[in-house]
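The record is passed on directly below:
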Amino acid sequence: MDILRTAKKVKYLNTILNDEPFEGKIDKLFEGFDDFWAITFVSSPRFFFDFVLKHKFQRVRLIIGIEDNDINDKFNLINPEPQHEFFKSLPDEAIEKIRNDEIQIRYSKLGITTHSKLFILKNNSNTRAVFGSANLTQKALSNKNQFEEIIAYDRDHNPNIVKLMETRFEQIWSESIDYVPERIKKEAKPTINVFSTETALDLLKENLSKLSVVGVSSQAIEELISEANIETDTIEYKKEYLKNSKDIINTLTKKTKNGIALISPREVPKKQQLISVKITRLSRRSDELDLRREIVYNETDDLLYIGFSDTDTFERYSEPIDEERITRFIKKIDMFVEAYEKFTIGSKKLYSKQRVFEAILYAFSSPFLWKIREIHAKNKGRDTALSDIPPFLVIAGQAWTGKTHLLEFISRLLGTQGRYFHYNTDIKPANVRDYFFSENIFPILIDEITKDYFTSSAASATKGESFVKSITNSLTGKHPCLIATTNTEFNANMQIIRRIYYLQINKPFDKTQKSQTDDYFSAVIEDIDDSLFKDFSFKFSQLIKNEEDVVKDGDYLNLTRQIFKEYFKIAGIDKPDYFIDKPLLDYYHRGSFMWRNLFQTKRDGFKIQKNMVIVDPTIVFNGDRLEKEKAKKFLDIGVVLEDSVVLVLDKDKFFDFIELNKKQNFFERIGNLFKS
């Protein structure tokens, strides 16, 4: 009983001041001083700086330590997100003091761990050194359920210890670097509330500059990577953080004759795409779920494997199925495609059926498209050939043309039960970019993507013309494709279009038959799963071994067409009328039709001079500059010679583009054009 009573009286926070027990509240130990130097782990920046402001310290020097030698925290200078989160949580008054240099914050340089707990307090008459096991955190100072030791000495009582601790602080300070971003120091209104890729890259370049000043040894980098590789932390989010942090440092380092070294800030733009993706992966919030499956490619057997996040394991996904099941699924696909004739309005319905089936073929091919691109570039002997094979499929159409039905059907065939992303609701451009740089090769399915995702001319690492060009021209290794629907307002210049597989579905569904159409689609998708996709991936893995046949006459879906021809044969179905033998050029033909129509209806606006066609925008576009720019994007590459007050076109290329026979003379061309 006496033991229990004694246990109840024990203090968790044991404080000694000048060799005597200190019985007052811990806050009293820090009162009455002007300067505060601290080396401590900061679990809550808000708590720490509220403490600092409450005690009215005029000058603060803080070295942020690492708790319990946490390997994750050692990466905080190469992962800008914790740095951003730290400053975002600070009170406005603390931010102002940082800008005025009244508060200085430092962090250990890469390869050094700071685990000390040391505090120096100064005023005109006294200096106090405080040290022990306790960090300046709410948990450590609460005197609840955590044993901590704090020892404090005033200069008059023990000048030798106080002097030694001051010297010790200065030593550690000299081995640390400034943790405060320049934007906080310099900007009138520091932008710390929004974490963008651009912000992250700026912070990263700044951190690399600071690290280059203090120097980081090759040994320190190697030890950090080695330590991360043997980390056994079982907390899932920490494991993910550590994995991605390692990816970042691998991107930020290079091999030299003296070992491993950090790249310079000047080299960051060269790796901007890759670095920003890894940053985005770290900063992505849990409210944006990845609706895709985890499908990876095994280069040992060329088969697909599926991952299970709950067990962190993979098992073989590609497997053959029997002919009876192949027949059932092929008949389902045939029924689905035929709906675009059975329930739509207008003539020439074959046009839509061909596009629907072509989208299905692309979707089946998509997990292998990175490999097709790789083989094609190797066979051509040039990396620029990567751009011949687009990792983007855009399905365009007006309302009620069945775009979303098609996306849902593709999702079911690939095994995600009709799930897909809604642009800007379920998925942001930064995360689309993130997925492109992952080895999960399952396609990114997005409904109603906006045209600016492909056409924005603003410099961006996540969307727009520069992003599309970068992905198509330069992305190598394993990566997924993007399959998206959009409306017919979509327009882009030919430099972008040749990097996208563009399919346009023209025929709208008959609204008066909505009930019958819905019942028909429900019957088609019933019992649809990914069995055929598993069989397809197995067959594809066998065919792709013969690299010469992967791309034939420019058709990157060549192997897929071979497999589906065999599927229809197995199902006892003659080759359908919607089964075509090469990729479509819908955007090209859309532009050709548009300009042919303009030439026919506004002939006065086109003047023929030798080898040129001069287009008068005031006649052809009624002086509307935006309409002219929109129409110009549909012209084929090389047609435009000059764009100023008038639009000057290459005559032969223009008439080829609007599909007039080159062998005819000019007057025959014009005559045939008007006949058409």
